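Exam prep: given the inputs below (a chain plus 5-phosphoarabinonic acid), describe the expected output before reading on.
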Amino acid sequence: MTDLSRLSIHSDNLFSDAIGAGGVDRQALEDLSPRLADLRERVKAWYADPTPNFLNLPKTTDVATIKHRGQEFVRRFDRCIVFGIGGSSLGGEMLVRTLGPRHPKCAVTFYDNVDPSTLEELGEVDWQHTLLLVISKSGNTAETLSQFLTVLPVMEHQLGDERIKEHTLVITENEEGALFELARRLDLPVIEHPPVGGRFSVLSVVGLLPAYIGGVDIDGVMEGARAMAERCVAADSILENPAYFNGAAQYLHAEQGRTISVVMPYADHLRFIVNWFRQLWAESLGKMDAEGRHKGLTPVEAHGVTDQHSQLQLLLEGPDDKLVTFLTNPAFRYRGSRVPMRFNDIPAIAPLAGHTIGELFYAEFLATRTTLSNRHRPNRTLSLLTRDAYALGELIILMELETVVVAELLGINAFDQPAVEESKVLTRQYLGKMNSVDT
Ligand code: PA5
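Solution:
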């Protein structure tokens, strides 16, 4: 098969033959292959299934209808506000912030918190020119419902009861949920959330509609995602399948105590990938197995180069419990202003003079990576060019399937989140004990 991938994956520095003591053994990785036999079958079945699931979204999502609807919104509105939390916002926000143009025709803003001081700014929204997307798979999420209910009077005031439905779209799955009921009572249009978990929903209407409205090339994202899905479905060998290979290697490191997964983008525009990945990795992998053992890998964010002056010392000389994934843009070395050939009699300036800022950025990435490897600290590098929708689509499927591979090897279910319910129940109890103000 010709490899037309635009995502470059460099994993050698996970192995002992490259970095010595802190690396895992390639043979140990091959030995894990039989433990993925069931998963291999499920992966093929998932991809062939006509019902949407995380892996087949690149072919089951109706992109044409999303674009049609999105075009209408972009024509009518110059701002779009998204209410949603967790999987209902992180995927869309990643696509918009990673791939969207700086000045889109319709600017998309995601509100994924209930910090009252941040939400105060919603009082200034001009709803005549604004679209509201309210996204919640369950339709019962306290934060999203509260956001919507508190902004509703402002919308009613500005638009009148009748026109709210022209400015609001609800995405939800649960017809028994409160959001669906609100949509029914207010006569709001509803799109069905596909039957996939929130953190695996980025390649559905949940992520793609806000992304398209924000100017993202969603066809490119889906082409890349489809290519990676097909590549992973086709390759049975653990050595040839990038998700099996990288997932299994991360599992082996976790077994050796390296349970902290640091993701370090050397590109500001790639930072939002880490936000999305953190939820995917933490919520999918942090749980108890059937024997009641606590499992999980902890995602940690570090920014290149900023955190070279913050976390790097820990990564190099702290406990050997981390694996670093670099996200880079190799083209950065050709970009940026050039440091002028002035003042180069000053020793600290001499090495910089004549180089672009991008060369400095890339040199610092190479130096950090080499320093880690020299100290036997495992690392891998995923490279993609700026605003390369195809490569980001590939990366999304790769990271999702790696997550599923690690879950399989840990003996846990990647798709549930049984423990978070307790905190939701307690929140309701604490609210019940607070005096509500009757307005
Ligand atoms: O991935 C998940 O399932 C969760 O993080 C949810 O996305 C999050 O809790 C929000 O749930 P909902 O979409 O039901 O409002």
